[in-house]
Structure formats: structure tokens, C-alpha cells
Design a protein that fits this description.
Spore Coat Polysaccharide Biosynthesis Protein SpsA, Chain A; single chain; 8 helices; two-stranded parallel ribbon; 9 strands; seven-stranded mixed beta sheet
């Protein structure tokens, strides 16, 4: 770490929706991996609207691991869980990871190192991902529209493999979208105030069926994108 801008540790946020089948195994895997990094850490498991056994498993994991925290929100919304975790996180590196661990864990220490001199690290799956072609096509079109309308230039706005300096994004907690548009919001807000953002490629093995209704999700994200764009236009008038 550079002496002028050291980080105290990392808070790893994992949004969870009905992950009872993999929650224990993947939490143990994360815990063992982070323990080997010799960095102070906490794992924040944020259940949002889970209706399976997740709310029963989570507290047991927190009791078994002193650095694991679990909370359950009755409403579905990964953005709600993101805001809740951000409010209560302990460390100044806030890193997001998908529950299925489809993104290779090497992103975590790389992002932690880069956050010493950046406000956000974007893990871009577009360069090395192995995902279904339909999901890639829809995602690519949405990214193109996002960059054109918001004046951004990045290749991945998904939830996983994103890292932030906590102090840089906490001022935007009140503006976090409750569902899945919050990554675009955070990146746009940071760029708007001159934040330091870097994008790096990440390995991704994602063959699991999406936890979201892709048609509904597509319409929702485009609606939120155009809503934000219209607000931007109104500011310039």
C-alpha cells in the first residue's frame, strides 16, 4: 500500500436472493480465501426478499465466522441491500461479489490494491467471459446505450466485480436505485464529480440461469436509463 493513501481493510458485499443451496459452501470459500490475503476484512451477506431457507442459514454463518455479517430485508431489491451494507460497512474498501462466485476471486485483491489510488474499480466481464450468447447480446446493447446517453465509456455495469472507496460513494446512498440500476448510478455520480475510475478485465464462468426475469429486467433498466438521461437534459436547459 502507498503511504499517502492506505486502506484499513475491505468490506465484501454479497447480495443474496434465494441462495440456500450454495450459501454455506460459498461463504466458507470466500472466508478461507480472504483469510489468506492477510487484510482485515468482513463479509456482508445481504438477503433481499429471500423466501427459501436463506434467512435461517445466514445467522448461523455469522455465528460461525466472526467476520461474517448477515442481514435480511423483507423486500426484494439488490439495491436496497447494497445501500444497507454500505451504511453499516466497517472498512474503506467496499467490494461487490456475486453469490455464485462466478467471477474469479482474484478480482478482490486486485481491486483492493487499485482502490488505494482510485475511487472505483470496474471488473469488465466482456473481454474474458464465458456466458450464454443471448445474455451477452442484450448486455452489450444496454452497455452501448448507457455509454451514449450518460457519457460513460465502460464495458460492464453488472452488479458483481465492482469495487469502491466507501467514502467516495457514501454521499450517494440516498440516490441508490432499489433494484439493479445502482451500478450505473454510482459510476455516473462518481464520474460527474471527477472521481478516479479504472476498469480491468475479469475471468467469469457464468452458466447459471439468471435470478431475474430477463424481459422484465431489460425493460426496467432501459426505463431507469432514459429516466436518468432525461434528468440530465433538464439540468442543461
Amino acid at each position: 500500500m502507498t503511504p499517502e493513501n492506505p486502506l484499513s481493510g475491505l468490506s465484501l458485499f454479497v447480495p443474496i436472493y434465494n441462495e440456500a443451496a450454495i450459501l454455506s459452501e460459498n461463504t466458507d470459500r470466500l472466508y478461507k480465501y480472504l483469510s489468506r490475503l492477510q487484510i482485515p476484512f468482513e463479509i456482508l451477506l445481504g438477503s433481499n426478499g429471500s423466501t427459501d431457507a436463506t434467512p435461517e442459514i445466514g445467522p448461523k454463518l455469522a455465528a460461525a465466522h466472526r467476520n461474517v455479517k448477515f442481514f435480511h430485508l423483507s423486500q426484494r431489491g439488490p439495491g436496497l441491500a447494497f445501500a444497507e451494507a454500505l451504511r453499516g460497512c466497517r472498512y474503506d474498501a467496499f467490494i461487490c461479489q456475486d453469490a455464485d462466485l462466478s467471477i474469479h476471486l482474484e478480482f478482490i485483491p486486485k481491486a483492493f490494491d487499485l482502490l488505494e489510488n482510485h475511487d472505483a474499480v470496474i471488473g469488465a466481464k466482456q473481454t474474458t467471459q464465458r456466458r450464454a450468447r443471448m445474455r451477452i447480446g442484450v448486455s452489450d446493447f444496454f452497455i452501448l446505450c448507457t455509454n451514449l446517453l450518460l457519457g460513460l465509456s465502460y464495458r460492464d455495469y453488472s452488479i458483481g466485480a465492482k469495487a469502491y472507496r466507501t467514502e467516495a460513494i457514501r454521499p450517494f446512498i440516498g440516490k441508490v436505485d432499489r433494484h439493479t440500476f445502482y451500478t450505473q448510478q454510482m459510476i455516473w455520480q462518481l464520474q460527474r464529480i471527477g472521481g478516479r475510475i479504472i476498469e480491468i478485465p475479469v475471468e467469469c464462468d457464468d452458466w447459471r440461469k439468471s435470478r431475474f426475469n430477463l424481459i422484465h429486467e431489460g425493460f426496467y433498466r432501459f426505463y431507469k436509463l432514459f429516466e436518468l438521461w432525461l434528468r440530465m437534459q433538464a439540468r442543461h436547459e
